[in-house]
Specification:
By secondary structure, this protein is mostly beta strands. 5% of the residues lie in helices and 53% in strands. Strands 1, 2, 3, 4, 5, 6, 7, 8, 9, 10, 11, 12, 13 and 14 form a 14-stranded antiparallel beta sheet that branches. The longest helix is centred in the N-terminal third of the chain and has 14 residues, at 2-15.
Length: 258
């Protein structure tokens, strides 16, 4: 665990070694919804590193959002991060794993955000329609919640609380749940942000004994006005009745904006 934490800190220190003036609005205060016609596209590589830097599963997950109206953005999502999970094995499984990523393609979703507040505190109503698995059991789900962000200067706090309702095959793991993810971000220098991802998650059927808290540290950098990259490393469950510090994940993503 200590070696894993040292690896994350070393990555942050390497990226943060640049010396520059920071514009605090570079990354931490981006609008929650897109201008009509604009696009955000991300490709995320997810891998389990519980047994080292090369683990199973290894997956590639694309996400694309498009501005439709001044207040409305819609997207097609695949990654674990798009549903606030610190996990590996979403979408296209390059290296399969029997439990987490058993099939080459196993999940997708639609995402919709409607802006209701902008400024230093911004908010958007958020709804998702998910297919968590296609095979061997079809597992559809729906979520309803809100994306919230407060920022001041070089700091921001983002929350994405939602209720997830499993619509079929609940007995096979498609449980209804509540998710309260939180991201604390700080922009020390221009075009670079450091993030702490955590929160509180729990399935309704075992809300008292089955809740858990994930934790991950990440660095995000804007390479150009159109491209950004990020790395995130952490634990699926570091605290709570279901905690397991051995379950560790590493994520890389590349984003394009237009």
């Amino acid at each position: 665990m200590l070696r894993f934490a040292a690896l994350v800190i070393a990555m942050i220190a390497t990226v943060g070694a640049r010396i520059a003036h920071a514009d605090p609005d570079d990354l931490i205060a981006k609008p929650l919804v897109l201008v009509p016609g604009h696009v955000d596209a991300f490709a995320t590589l997810e891998t389990d590193i519980s047994s080292g830097l090369h683990g199973e599963p290894l997956s590639l997950a694309p996400d694309v959002w498009v501005g439709v109206l001044p207040e409305l953005t819609v997207g097609v999502i695949h990654s674990d991060l798009s549903v606030d999970r610190i996990g590996a094995g979403a979408s296209f499984c390059i290296e399969t794993q029997r439990i987490i990523c058993p099939n080459a393609y196993h999940g997708t979703g639609l995402d919709a955000l409607y802006s209701i507040a902008t400024g230093s505190f911004s908010a958007a109503v958020r709804a998702r329609a998910l297919i968590r698995e296609f095979h061997p059991y079809f597992e559809p789900a729906a979520t309803l919640g809100a994306l919230l962000r407060w920022h001041r200067g070089r700091w921001s706090i983002t929350g994405d609380p939602f209720v997830q309702i499993g619509l079929d095959n609940n007995r096979y793991g498609n449980y209804s749940a509540i998710w309260v993810p939180v991201v604390f971000a700080m922009q020390p220098i221009e075009h670079v942000a450091i993030e702490l991802h955590t929160g509180w998650n729990g399935d309704f059927y075992e809300i008292y004994d089955g809740w858990y808290t994930p934790a991950a540290l990440g660095v995000r950098g804007a390479i150009t006005p159109h491209f950004e990259v990020g790395v995130l490393a952490g634990w699926l469950s570091i605290f709570g009745p279901q905690n397991d510090e051995k379950l560790r994940v590493l994520m890389f993503d590349v984003g394009w904006h237009e």
